[in-house]
Amino acid sequence: MKAVMKAVRIINISLALFKGWMRSRSGVFFSFMFPVMLLLIFGVIFQGGGEYDLYIINMDKKNGINEPTNLSKAFIDALNSTSAINVIVVNGTPQDFIQENSFGRIRLLVIPPRFEENFTKAIAIERMKSMFSTVEYIIGNYSARIPEDALKEMEKGRVWLERTERPEIRLVYYAEKDDAVAPIIAGVLHAFTASFTLKGVGAENIFQMEMVNYRGLKPADYYMPGYISAFIMTNGVIGLTSTVSDMRRRGIFKRLATTPLEKREWVAANVIHQSLLAIMLTFVMLIVARLAFSVEAFPNPFSWLLIFEGAVLFSGIGMILGSLFRDVEAATAIANAIAFPMMFLSGTFWSLEMMPEYLQTIAKLIPLTYFSEGLRTAMITGGDASFNAIILGVLAVVFLALGSYAVKWYE
Amino acid sequence: MIIEVKNLVKVYGNTKALDRVTLEVKTDEIFAILGPNGAGKTTLIEILEGLRTPTSGEAKVLGFDVIKDRDKIRRKVGVLPQDFAAFDRLTVEENISLFSSLYNGLDVSELISLVGLEQWRKVRFQELSGGLKQRVGIACALAGSPDLVFLDEPTTGLDPIARRETWEVIENLRGKTVVLTTHYMEEAEKLADRVAIIVSGRIVACDSVEELKRKFGKLRLVVHGETRRELEVESFEEIYRILQSLDKPYPFEIVTPTLEEIYVKLVS
Ligand SMILES: Nc1ncnc2c1ncn2[C@@H]1O[C@H](COP(=O)(O)OP(=O)(O)O)[C@@H](O)[C@H]1O
Ligand SMILES: [Mg+2]
């Protein structure tokens, strides 16, 4: 009976907190709309509407006239027909083009002169090689029955093939050093040229090609777990801090303290409320990321564990800050001063590898780093995040204990 | 005695918020703690509620010690804190129902009609006027059907009409023990069976309104003769003697003391 009453009190307080939050426009905005906006904006900025622009300079011209060779044209058309890349053919030299467009994020592919000639030659050699392996097999087994002349001719051919070098076709791909998307396009190009060559060697008609459609990781895959963790953090550190300090200042705390509600129950209710928000935020982000960027990730049980640990950890911090500062403005200012640097230094908005060494060291001291990194690993890349889970678990227990201690039920 | 306080002291840094306060509250009476701002009313009442820890002295509420048994006290008393606030974005009904559920207490509709908030059931707390907010607060204080109710400045900041309405609600609490604080003499005089006057942390008087008047107030006789004469008198016999000794039957008035006079005298 006592346990039932306890549960009823905890649930009712969580519901009251949750209802109050649902009805607060700024609460809903900062908890849901803001992260969704960020995901949409950053996802689109770095994605370019689903296709990446790729500029191409084609230097393979027909003899004497300024017209592209048939093969290079076919290559470009095929590249353009893949869903990942939008080809824009330009003229001039690569150096001039890059200089003229240095403010844009340009990715440029250069098709070298004699592309058609070398490609054809390379294919011919590859085919002859495969033919000769058959011939050598025959010679090895049946040489006694083959006329001397024929053997001589075959030997001549083998020597020619050995001496002839297979021409190399060097495609040059220019991309900005810190362009997060450049490697994605490089991957696409790589897969494409491999398939182009394969078709060239194996099939009769090298212009009929088929592209393997694969989905690489997009910026949204990177941002989604980052934003989920970052906004679970702000919900606790900023949201809960201001709620707690406001309730204290207005005496709601005192009022709750003079009921059978116990401090532990109040703490539990806040943790439940924050966990509920975290789950909702996760679902909203999943839906938006799937609809807008076809991100297919779904949190596994391990991801949910991390999400819960994060919600507990940052509720603890919120309760500590809210209890330390009675003045709501001061509490919120401090909370912001903690939350924003934490957000920017933890690899939520950009990869840690892009930051200078000393900032990477600082990032290792920030709880959010372990949260967003762990969630990204568990949700997207599918690796082992148990180290992150252990760190978060320990921090969650510590900060929850400190938070419960900081909340004062009487003076 | 439902409340017994002995030599209660509370010190904040250099301020002695309570200085050896001793008083008793009887079961089922309405007891007012009257004093100016900063006198120590809230400090006293919140120690009795188990919310603050006294520096020294003793206090028992419902037979429980205010430090050792504060958890038992907090569950058994009804409290309206000074500047009561509830969950802003919850409705009247939701707030009252929340508090009732914390006690496993009274039915929400019953509480709502007890304080006359039927019309405002669905209105959010933040949209209510000061008087209506106080009524929500009183309903919340009654949610656990307590025998002892503390009301800290229940009418401060209300307009005169809302104040009178709140008085009515408090009058209806008769049958329970009510301890209220106020800085309005009128309120103490109107509601309270007994009044403790507190000044700078000290109880300077504690009695029924009539007794206070008898002890601290002087009767006055005003005679409208050639000139207006005002005399302080001890008793009605004295008035009779004075009137007899007048040479003509001049018009006269007898002025009885008000609590206000006593209060002003004691406070200054
Ligand atoms: N938490 C506190 N810290 C420091 N001083 C306090 C505190 N609470 C009250 N005081 C001081 O104690 C005195 C009595 O305050 P209070 O009990 O609130 O008076 P009242 O309720 O009669 O207006 C005041 O001088 C006030 O400044
Ligand atoms: Mg007060």
Describe this structure in words.
The complex is a heterodimer of chains A (411) and B (268). Chain A has 411 residues and is mostly helical. Chain A is 68% helix and 5% strand. Chain A has a four-stranded mixed sheet. In chain A, helix 8 packs antiparallel against helix 12, helix 11 packs antiparallel against helix 12 and helix 11 runs parallel beside helix 15. Chain B is built from ten helices and 13 strands. Chain B has a six-stranded mixed sheet with strand order 6-7-8-3-9-10, sandwiched between helices. In chain B, a hairpin with a 2-residue loop joins strand 9 and strand 10. The mean pLDDT of chain B is 91. Adenosine-5'-diphosphate binds next to strand 2 and helix 1 of chain B. The site of adenosine-5'-diphosphate has 11 residues of chain B, from strand 2 and helix 1.
Give me some keywords for this one.
heterodimer, A: 411 residues, mainly alpha, 4-stranded mixed sheet, 15 helices, 4 strands, 68% helix, elongated, B: 268 residues, alpha/beta, 6-stranded mixed sheet, 4-stranded antiparallel sheet, 29% strand, globular, binds adenosine-5'-diphosphate, binds magnesium ion
List low-pLDDT spans of chain A: 202-216
Distance between the termini of chain A: 30 Å
Q: Can you count the helices of chain A?
A: 15
Q: Give the termini distance of chain B in whole angstroms.
A: 31 Å
Biggest interface found: A-B, 23 and 32 residues
Number of helices of chain B: 10
Shape verdict of chain B: globular
In angstroms, what is the radius of gyration of chain B? 22 Å
**Mean of residue pLDDT of chain B?**
91
Task: Order the strands across the largest sheet of chain B as they lie in space.
Answer: 6-7-8-3-9-10
Residue share in β-strands of chain B: 25-35%
Strand order of the largest sheet of chain A: 2-1-3-4
